[in-house]
């Protein structure tokens, strides 16, 4: 199972960023060890970690929930068009990863982040990496946060 | 009061839109927007803004390199970093390279207003 410091850092960042930019309160329901990050007709935004550890974080959510979050980020009622939804969610993931960098450093992992991308296929889990899926519940529905993480020192 | 002219540099349309709306409310005019460092340097030369807000993680040319280039073009360039990176060493490095201030994303309106007072309007 992935180091708990890593999971805590990422899920704390998700909750903080969602509350700050969209006024959404989310609670962590459970964290499950998985062998692969799977996507089922969902929107998935991924961002990579590089440096003292390698891997990525993936925000996976129902397109309707994504639309509602994007609308809340813009302070509007109507769901924005899909390009705006994607752009808003990519920035959300960028903020989540960026905010977790300091927390990861405290957990002993000095990392840099890449730019976020929309992920269409389940990302491969590299040799030596571990995978987990965190489930967060908010008023709009469930958010899944996939984490692939390889502690380079530990391999 | 004379409006201060801002160049916004970020690859996120969401941040560009949010910052532009916020700055416009506080006596600033957004004269240009760039989605990467290369575009930012070109626009800086052309527009000569009063200040620049600069993201760190961007495609083509990131914020660190852009900051160095802007300071080489104009040592008096007023550059404010707006980034989600909470890594202390990154923040220290930006200040060493000549950034005036570091605003963490997600940001509150107050932190942007306080930055404007201190570094742009020099109250």
Radius of gyration of chain A: 15 Å
Largest sheet of chain A: 7 strands, antiparallel
Largest interface: A-B, 26 and 20 residues
- What's the rounded overall pLDDT mean of chain B? 96
Detailed description of the structure:
The complex is a heterodimer of chains A (about 160) and B (about 120). Chain A contains three helices and seven strands, in the order αβββααββββ. Chain A is globular and about 45 Å long. Chain A has about 160 residues and is of the alpha+beta class. The two termini of chain B are about 15 Å apart. The interface between A and B is medium-sized, with 26 and 20 residues.
List keywords for this structure.
heterodimer, A: 155 residues, alpha+beta, seven-stranded antiparallel sheet, 3 helices, 36% helix, globular, B: alpha/beta, 5 helices
What secondary-structure arrangement, pairings included, does this model have?
The complex is a heterodimer of chains A (155) and B (123).
Chain A: H1 4-22, E1 26-34, E2 43-51, E3 53-61, H2 63-74, H3 82-106, E4 111-113, E5 117-118, E6 130-138, E7 141-151
Antiparallel strand pairs in A: 1-6, 2-3, 2-4, 2-5, 3-7, 6-7
Chain B: E1 4-9, H1 13-25, E2 28-34, H2 37-47, E3 51-54, H3 63-73, E4 79-83, H4 88-96, E5 101-104, H5 109-120
Parallel strand pairs in B: 1-2, 1-3, 3-4, 4-5
Helix pairs in contact in B: 2-3
């Amino acid at each position: 199972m992935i180091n708990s410091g890593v999971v805590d850092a990422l899920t704390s960042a998700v909750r903080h960023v969602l509350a700050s930019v969209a006024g959404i309160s989310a609670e962590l329901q459970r964290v499950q060890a998985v062998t692969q990050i799977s996507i089922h007709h969902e929107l998935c935004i991924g961002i990579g970690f590089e440096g003292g550890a390698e891997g990525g974080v993936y925000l996976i959510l129902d397109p309707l929930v994504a639309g509602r979050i994007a609308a809340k980020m813009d302070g509007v009622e109507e769901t924005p068009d899909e390009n705006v939804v994607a752009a808003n969610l990519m920035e959300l993931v960028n903020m989540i990863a960026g905010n977790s960098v300091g927390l990861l450093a405290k957990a002993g992992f000095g990392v840099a982040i890449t730019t976020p991308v929309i992920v269409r296929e389940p990302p491969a889990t590299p040799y030596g990496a571990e995978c987990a899926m965190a489930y967060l519940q908010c008023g709009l529905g469930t958010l899944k946060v996939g984490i692939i993480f390889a502690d380079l020192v530990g391999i | 009061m004379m409006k201060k002219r801002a160049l916004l540099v970020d690859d996120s349309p969401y941040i560009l839109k949010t910052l532009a709306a916020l700055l416009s409310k506080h006596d600033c005019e957004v004269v240009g927007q760039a989605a990467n460092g290369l575009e930012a340097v070109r626009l800086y030369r052309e527009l000569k803004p009063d200040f620049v807000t600069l993201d760190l993680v961007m495609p083509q040319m990131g914020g660190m390199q852009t900051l160095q280039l802007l300071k080489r073009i104009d040592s008096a360039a007023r550059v404010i970093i707006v980034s989600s990176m909470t890594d202390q060493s990154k923040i220290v490095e930006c200040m060493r390279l000549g950034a005036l201030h570091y605003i963490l994303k997600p940001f509150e309106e107050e932190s942007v207003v306080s930055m404007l007072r201190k570094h742009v309007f020099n109250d």
